[in-house]
From TrEMBL:
Record-annotated membrane-spanning stretches: 275-298
Protein name, UniProt field: DUF676-domain-containing protein
Domain spans labelled DUF676: 2-207
Originating organism: Dendrothele bispora (strain CBS 962.96)
InterPro entries: AB_hydrolase_fold (IPR029058), DUF676_lipase-like (IPR007751), Lipase-like (IPR044294)
Keywords tagged on the record: Membrane, Transmembrane, Transmembrane helix
Organism taxonomic ancestry: Eukaryota, Fungi, Dikarya, Basidiomycota, Agaricomycotina
Gene3D superfamilies reported for this sequence: alpha/beta hydrolase (3.40.50.1820)
One Pfam match: DUF676
Length: 413
């Protein structure tokens, strides 16, 4: 039997449960198979990077994921006596960056010699890292905290790492058209990019959709007229800002003034719990202000310890990470690296670094590229909702189910 292997990769601090809704929707369409059929799609939700292992850096997360994929492939072929003839991969958030690294490992390992690369999908993935599109104090603090308290991954997301001694950040190298990362991605039959157009407080639009500008920052969202893909709301088909002011009744005006719903753990509690929360809130906040930095520091320290162990292993035997770094160094030494930009710190007038602008340019030259913008409103943060990440805990996450159906229906078999 021919097997189409489809790999799912979660994001930062993630776990396999984050794909429960996605797997349910996918299996409802592609999971059932006719015993007489010679083809089937098999899902593999990678387990190797759960929790704070995502601090270790994109290369080590991809290393673990690639090993799990290779083991699954051997099991399918040797134990189940099936043949993998097609391969697809879907990454959510940071998982999309893992996916870009994983396929380069597979490409360099000749995995695709007899396997057809079919679907490459990312959902709310920071393809150019976390850009500083504003100069606010919060943005500066976020960069300091994120780049130092999220381990190697934080440095890579903020583009301050030195990949394989090249003097360039990994994100910049991975977007270079002459490198294995870009070429492995360009080989896929379909490349589908799902990005939140609005309300994503985690991954900005310009990074999720790798675009030079965010047109939605200039739009009054409340006055925008949007049209969705038929049957796939909230996938955006078209949008414009209404030129004609709408006449609202008094009740509609009051409704418009209502605060956005808070999708976090503290909802509107009934008496007396709301009173208890109000009294205890100062103490809770004080504890959190102490515990959160300590937790980040301890997790970062644990990550550094893991990375040191992995680097020791790398010195003793060849790992995928060793192979990829050597390959990158060879490509650069041979003069094959084109489009080299100024250092990542240099910025343009749009808040994007010059290297980020080059990343955007290169990524938009990928073949078979399809972008899908998502309009989820009114919510405070659409990042988790886009994949119904915790639908069982937060019913509002079901607002993203149209995205999952679109992903499934456009999946090339």
């Amino acid at each position: 039997m021919q097997v189409h292997l489809h790999v799912l990769l979660h994001g930062l601090w993630g776990n396999t449960k984050h794909f429960e809704s996605a797997a349910r929707v996918f299996n409802a369409k592609h999971g059932t198979r006719d015993d007489e059929s010679q083809n089937r799609v098999q899902l593999l939700i990678v387990e190797a990077n759960e929790g704070t292992k995502t601090y270790d850096g994109i290369e080590w997360g991809a290393e673990r994921a690639a090993k799990e994929i290779m083991e699954a492939a051997r099991r399918i072929e040797e134990k189940d006596h099936h043949t993998i003839d097609k391969f697809s991969i879907t990454g959510y958030s940071l998982g999309g960056l893992y996916a870009r690294y994983v396929i380069a490992i597979l490409h360099a390992s000749d995995f695709f010699a007899n396997v057809q690369p079919m679907n490459f999908v990312t959902i709310a993935t920071p393809h150019i890292g976390i850009p500083r599109t504003d100069r606010s104090l919060f943005s500066r603090l976020a960069k300091v905290v994120g780049s130092h308290l999220l381990g190697n991954t934080g440095q890579q997301l903020y583009g301050i790492d030195n990949w394989a001694g090249t003097g360039r950040a990994w994100l910049e190298v991975a977007s270079d058209r002459s490198c294995v990362f870009w070429n492995a991605l360009n080989a896929f039959h379909r490349i589908d990019i799902y990005a939140n157009a609005i309300n994503d407080r985690t991954v900005p639009y310009v990074s999720g959709a790798f675009e030079f500008e965010d047109p939605f920052t200039k739009v009054n969202i409340e006055k925008a007229e949007v049209e969705f893909e038929a049957g796939y709301e909230p996938i955006l088909k078209s949008w414009c800002e209404s030129k004609v002011p709408r006449k609202l009744s008094l009740s509609q005006r009051f409704q418009a003034w209502k605060p956005l719903p808070y999708l976090g753990p503290f909802r509107q509690w009934n008496f007396p719990y709301n009173l208890i929360l109000m009294v205890m809130l100062p103490m809770i906040l004080s504890v959190l202000l102490f515990l959160l930095p300590m937790t980040f520091l301890l997790n970062t320290r644990a990550s550094r310890s893991r990375v040191l162990t992995l680097q020791k292993l790398m010195n003793e035997e060849e790992t995928y990470s060793t192979r990829m770094k050597l390959l990158t160094q060879v490509e650069q030494a041979a003069g094959n690296v084109v489009g080299h930009t100024e250092p990542a710190q240099a910025t343009s007038d749009k808040g994007l670094s010059l290297s980020q602008r080059q990343m955007i340019k290169n990524l938009n030259q990928l073949s078979n590229l399809h972008k899908h913008l998502v309009w989820i409103h009114p919510v405070r943060n659409s990042h988790a909702i886009i994949i119904c990440r915790e639908e069982s805990q937060f019913p509002d996450h079901s607002l993203g189910e149209g995205v999952l159906r679109h992903w499934v229906d456009h999946f090339a078999l």
